[in-house]
Amino acid sequence: MSPRPRMKMLAVSIGVALAQWGSGAAFADSAVGVDMANGNDLNPPGRSAIPRPMADGGYDTVRRSPTGQLYGVPYDVETEPNQTEGGWQYTGGVEGGALGGNGDTKNALFRKYKDLKNGGYLNYFNIEADKADTGNYMSAFGGGTGQADQFYGMQFGRYNDWKMKLFYNETQHVFSTNWRLLMNGEGTGNLTTGLAAPVAVTTGTFAAGAANYVGAASTCTAAAPCWKYTDALGVTKTYSNAAASGAINGIGGVANAAGVVVAGPLQSNMALAISNKLAATPDSELSLVRKKGGGRFDKTITDNWKGYFSYTQEARQGSRPFSFTQGNNLSTEIAEPIDYTTHDFLAGIQYADRLTQANLRFSASLFRNNISTLNVQYPLLSPGVNAAGTGVAGPYAAIQTATFDLYPDNNAFNLKGEFARSMPDFLHGRFNAALSFGTSQQDDALLAPISAAQLRNLQANGYYNPALATNILGTVANLGYAAGTLNINNWIDPQTALSQTTSKQRIDTALLDLGLSVKPVDALSMKGTLRYYDSANKGGYMAYNPLTGQFGRGPNDGNGAFEAIVGLQPGTLPKTAGDCYIPPGFTANALTNTCQFNLVFNNGSNIPVNGQARSTQQLNYGLSGDYDLSNTSSINAALEREEFNRNFRERDKTWEDKFKLGYVNRGWGDATLRTSYEVDNKRGSEYRYRTWEDLGTWLPGLTPAEQVAAAQALAVNPADPKYAGYVALAAGLFNRYSYYFRKYDQADRDQNIFNLRLNYQAREDLDLGLAVQMKDIKYPNSFYGLESDKQDSVSLEANYQPVSGSNIYASYGYQRGSKSMKLNSGVAGVNACTLPNVAALGYVACSDTTTGLDGARPYTSAWKMNSDDRNNVIGLGFQTKIGAMQFGVDYTYSSSTTDIGYTFGSTALSAVPATQAAAALIAGSALPSMTFVQQTLSLNLLIPVSKRLSIRLYDRIELGGVTDWHYDGVVHNAVTNYDLGATQLDSGSMGYRANVIGFFIQYKL
């Protein structure tokens, strides 16, 4: 008997077998599972989707219906396979040719995940072989050779003994094809503007109106320097401290001799230099490529025991857009460098007999970021901030470099055991259990508040001399500090300026999953489940500088100016030790007694001090049953309760009850019906919306009751130095959080889900299908935040296969989703839940819709946002014979539309100019729709030349269009006057039209 059917069954199942290679848990890898089907855009199933002629004149047409069901006929079983002298029988094929047309279209939407360059193209190859007398076999396939979406797979081994699987694939991700390259060093950890004329500081006395001097008369010193800049036209000018930022950047207008702005932005400045450079820079591509490969070895040890081991490695290299904002809203786009490597290991052993199955599995995932930090030179001159929070050029504008700490190296390990036992003598029962333990860790080196890159910049501008014992950054009085209190040396060494030198982050997890299924009577099946999951966060971080005794964020080199230093209030001298609160385990600075804890703010914002280690425990338990009403119909029901316990969250505990009822009828004439309805209700413990621990600003060692006591003491004696700064803290927090605000993952929630699936066999060769889902989610007590979330979906399918080699299918899917968010309780006069004595400070603890003192707007200024999404997908296709040829057409249409609207209270826009208020009111109902439409038409004509040789002609027409009001009216590739200055390097997604033509020769071994 020919082994050909066995070989062909191997070919059909190889994609499923290969899926196991990438199925191990890869906790540090976002791409886990993508190797379920190795393939690309021209070969989506992971094997050639092109029909091949058979001896009887039919075609090997393996196609997928919209539901995923495979329709097809077996390979040609009449053709004898090739055979070697050693007894190996083999078969295979190859298809190669060329692509033409405009597959090279430079469009990010078209090229996002595929690579269809013009030129020679090896589309697909495969070979399968086995040896009947030994049971050995091998199979290999691949395609897209040399492209950025190429793929390969190979399997070899001995039936029922051992097997080895290998794979390699690539996937590109194109983010932009109209990117303008502003920064030098893109793709590395150091980005510089590359402009020929840097800004430098200078000293001297200048008179108003002096040659090549801009600003009022000024005497410039090292502490308060002027700024010298050679512009794009080669003209060198000196700018006064006050005039420097706007004049050099060209975003603040032209100043006269007195320093008064009298005209629009300058044209010969840094902004013009940037615009000129971008105008002369061609569009480029911003993308990354993911390369992943690995293997798995399986061995049958005995009839009952099997073992396996696998290893995969993934490398991602390239760049992607990254938002970058320097001090005071000067913003631009930069390219974040991507150079990641992930190693995944998986090993396990399996046991199975007639009644018992058991598995033990170990997995490890090691993520490595080969670029640990990103240093960025500011494209524009960054203004500093004085004590009043006013943007000025100032000496603090010397900070012209930002440093970002990129994703850290991390490791994840997991050990999981599974056990299942059939119990035929106990109600035909079956017991299953799973137990696993895992840990995720990273210990990245922390950066000093002033990075090495910024230190070099300060030294180059004359603000730092390592030989001096004390280095003052300009005139400290500009920020309201007493002279001599800001010492750069205290903030540059991570070994001494931080509470810890590495992150020391770790999360341990444990899982227990139990289940018992029984069948007390023939018509009834029941199952009980219990699942407990514990996530223990053992990290956390205290922002504390042992050199100064100060808590909170210190100098910030990523914001263009030094933030206010926590522990010293602007304009005041250090407090005495007796006036300080010192958290357990920490000490005050011995020289200055500087120990106020998180009580000083810059620009009114609270500064986080303690990063809490937040842990969660999850418990699920439930009971389900299935009862047969007849031989063809049944009802099923399930009841489940889910409980979450959290620490350092607004709610300590939430619980959700879920009830699901279903009905199945498999004998309803020529139809099969499945339907279900689910009701879920989530509630929880008291929602603590303004506790210090919830907001990341609490005082360690103070219980919530003690925090209230502190508020009460402050209300009685606000002048008590022990509570200095508490007023600012209370105002900053109380004015930002409303009592009625609810984070959606902890908010009360009511959810209803309806599902229906109907399959109908209209004829022996015609199948019809209908699927419906309706989901309605409400947040009944979230008067401030997400209010409702609805989603309705429906799909229709038809499949018609009258004869072998012919198939017609059609599908339509529609989905609509809507969300509503309230920005106020919307109830007039509500003022509830006031904490004791806090009102004496002038604040209220709950939503005050009358005065809005707590940050919630009064009822008349409430506003609401609604979003509405609609999606349509149509699929059509057919395969048919034309004489000896096979002709196929596939067409897909997809569209999505998003509408966003706002409604406003009568006084919501009272604080903005009338013209802007009118525009906003109009926009509330007149924002244009955001749309995306894509159409793809693929034509295939297979012309057999002989039994083994065929010619295939291919044509793919693809259209795409996108409209997005976020990009409407935005000036690209130039410095604009949005906010205080912005540079848009990407023009956004654009429509396209592409026609890819292919000519291939297919040879069957």
TrEMBL record:
Q: Signal sequence span per UniProt?
A: 1-28
Q: Does the keyword Signal apply?
A: yes
User: Which residue stretches belong to region Disordered?
Assistant: 43-63
Protein's UniProt keywords contain Nucleotidyltransferase: no
InterPro entries reported in the protein's UniProt record:
Decahaem-assoc_OM_MtrB/PioB
* Coiled coil stretches, renumbered: none
Q: Which UniProt keywords apply?
A: Signal
- Note the Pfam families from the entry: MtrB_PioB
Which protein are we looking at?
Answer: Decaheme-associated outer membrane protein, MtrB/PioB family
Q: Which organism is it from?
A: Rhodoferax lithotrophicus
